[in-house]
Amino acid sequence: MEALLRRMTKISAAVAVLALTFAGCGRQDDDNGGDDDGNNTGSGGSVCESADGDGPKVGLAYDVGGRGDQSFNDAAYAGVEKATAEVDATCFEGEAEEGEPESARVERLRQMAEQGYNPIIGVGFAYSTSVNEVAPDYPDLSFAVVDGFDPDDQPNENVAYLGFSEHEGSYLVGVAAALKTQKDHIGFVGGVHNDLIKKFEAGYVAGAKSVKPNVKVEIQYIEESDLSGFGDPAGGKAAATGILDKGADVVYHAAGGSGSGVFEAVAAKGEGNWAIGVDSDQYLTAPADQQPFILTSMLKRVDVAALAMIQSVADGSPLTSYQVYDLKVDGVGYSTSGGFVDDIATQLEEAKEQIKSGEVTVPDKP
């Protein structure tokens, strides 16, 4: 996995160079808010604009799409938002640009370090190389990378690599998909065809087949290696439309910002079709006309990991090395907003307990 991700980082760095954006705290406002558990935040005013506590000064370096992506970045922000209340943290946000070079990420992190932010959290594996370059120069600061890895297989002593058991959460929504499909035909849309996203695919298929061994699963990826696959709603819509046209009636996406296109396609198909979101509870941030079609979301609790990292710094014992957040520690799960899985809650909870107890081992490769 590490070798593949290293190649992806190099590919990303070779794309056309865009200007470095070192965003402050302000972003465009909209009408979407978040729930009390911080599962998503919308893209309204940031708590970083007003937080003035005496706790850790958090530097949050977003992946492409930034806060307001209704997915991965929003989940990280939710953890920081909780930290402002629980450990009196303050924060600063930096946002990536699509196609930016590695040097842009390095500079973003270095500026945060120079300003004394601690911890500094890179959201997404694309920050792995840049964090490992910058961290040794600031041994008194703590860094973390969500979905991170050490490119040189020599983890820095002041870096935590925050990983998740995405396959376990995906198994649960696969169970939901199999229980809800009326056609015994479901689908999966991945943003980029890499080992990380294939974990989502593997768990989803395994969960569905645990309920209906003969269920048909359509698999479609938006991009083979280009990270733009996570920020292409049109591509997400096209992929989902193709799956629906083949006869599937439930589509799960692991495609970041491209997922909005998946929701659009399913809503356009109409009653009897379902979409499944990812990372955050996407029912809460979807447009009102799409909400009736969002069955559930696989919760990748980046907020839990981000908060744990910040709390560890506040406690004086920063997390380091590889940290994995699985079902046992509430690192992954599924959402219940809309009430669409209430009738299958018993089966979903049984599947969850089987994984937690070790009775079921979920595959992490297709």
Structure description:
The chain is built from 10 helices and 12 strands. It is α/β, with parallel strands linked by helices and 366 residues long. The protein has 2 domains: 2-165 and 302-328, 3-Layer(aba) Sandwich (Rossmann fold), CATH 3.40.50; 166-300 and 333-357, Rossmann fold, CATH 3.40.50.2300. β3 (120-123), α4 and β4 (143-146) form a beta-alpha-beta unit. The radius of gyration is 19 Å and the shape is globular.
Strand order of the largest sheet: 2-1-3-4-5-11
- CATH architecture assignment name of the largest domain: 3-Layer(aba) Sandwich
Task: Give the overall silhouette.
Answer: globular
Distance between the termini: 14 Å
Structural class designation: alpha/beta
Helix and strand run = HEHEHEHEEHEHEHEHEEHEEH
Radius of gyration: 19 Å
CATH fold title of the largest domain: Rossmann fold
Mean pLDDT reading: 87
CATH class of the largest domain: Alpha Beta
Fourth-level CATH superfamily of the largest domain: Response regulator
Q: In DSSP terms, counting alpha (H) and pi (I) runs of 4 or more, how many helices?
A: 10
Bin the helical content: 25-40%
